[in-house]
Design brief:
This protein has 219 residues and is of the alpha/beta class. A hairpin with a 2-residue loop joins strand 1 and strand 2. The model has no long low-confidence stretch (mean pLDDT 92). It folds into two domains: 2-56, no CATH class; 68-214, 3-Layer(aba) Sandwich (Rossmann fold), CATH 3.40.50.1820. The protein is 47% helix and 18% strand. The site of 2-acetamido-2-deoxy-beta-D-glucopyranose has 4 residues, from loops. Belongs to the 'GDXG' lipolytic enzyme family. Residues 107-202 form the Alpha/beta hydrolase fold-3 domain. Pfam families: Abhydrolase_3. The active site is at residue 189.
């Protein structure tokens, strides 16, 4: 074996080792998932490297993914998409276009990203909200809460909560044709954390005191 083939062989083994992540056999698209995991790992390594070189903060480097993944609000045949503000917090709003006889569902969504990165305008979140809006006939409010390190706790939570509170007003719900009994909060990762906190705060502050929430079911 020549030196070149030996180097190629070693490089292939190392790349395979880097990409391979053990996963249960029954996972769909295992290789796709491994590749995505490897891409994320690479970005993390590069971000750590950039920080050690003094080029930028680790989180600033990760933020580049959010920027690279940004898509503008674009309506399609099923959903009208706009960027707007609820209670001074930027949100991306998805309104189903389908004519339905009854009221629509409502969902307030919080993206993930460790409270530091991510955004409603990222391609993956935009697609998720769009599909949710279309398939569930739901008005989706995807929240661009302010991010760390510029803004610290509890600003992220306050933004998440004030958007939810704004949306739950009777006048806003009727403006968008949303059924007060069919609203949820949701999120992934850090967004799941925010959704859980918002759900508890809505219960404590709004439901238990019965203020401003005519018709919203509090169970
Ligand atoms: C619109 O909705 C239909 C039915 O759910 C779906 O088949 C179609 O792909 C959607 N269009 C877009 C642009 O997502």
């Amino acid at each position: 074996m020549g030196t070149k083939s030996l180097c190629l062989f070693i490089a292939s083994v190392l790349i395979a080792y880097y990409i391979y992540t053990p996963m249960p056999e029954n996972f769909e698209d295992r290789w796709k998932l491994m590749l995505i995991t490897a891409v994320f790992r690479t970005v993390e390594h590069l971000a750590g490297f950039a920080e050690r070189l003094g080029l930028m903060h680790y989180m600033e480097a990760l933020m580049l993914i959010t920027v690279a993944e940004y898509v503008p609000p674009t309506s399609d045949e099923n959903v009208t998409v706009t960027d707007t503000e609820f209670s001074n917090v930027p949100v991306r709003l998805y309104l189903p276009r389908k004519q339905s006889s009854g009221l629509k569902r409502g969902m307030v969504y919080f993206h993930g990203g460790g409270w530091c990165v991510g955004g409603a305008g990222m391609k993956s979140y935009d697609l998720l909200s769009r599909q949710t809006s279309n398939q569930l006939n739901a008005v989706v409010v995807s929240v661009n809460y302010r991010l760390a390190p510029k803004y610290h706790f509890p600003v992220q939570f306050e933004d998440a909560y004030s958007v939810t509170k704004f949306f739950l007003q009777g006048s806003v719900l009727s403006q968008y044709g949303v059924d007060p009994n069919r609203i949820c909060v949701a999120g992934d990762s850090a967004g799941g954390n925010l959704a859980a906190a918002v759900a508890q705060q809505v219960y404590v502050k709004l439901c238990s005191k019965q203020v401003h929430l005519q018709n919203v079911l509090c169970v």
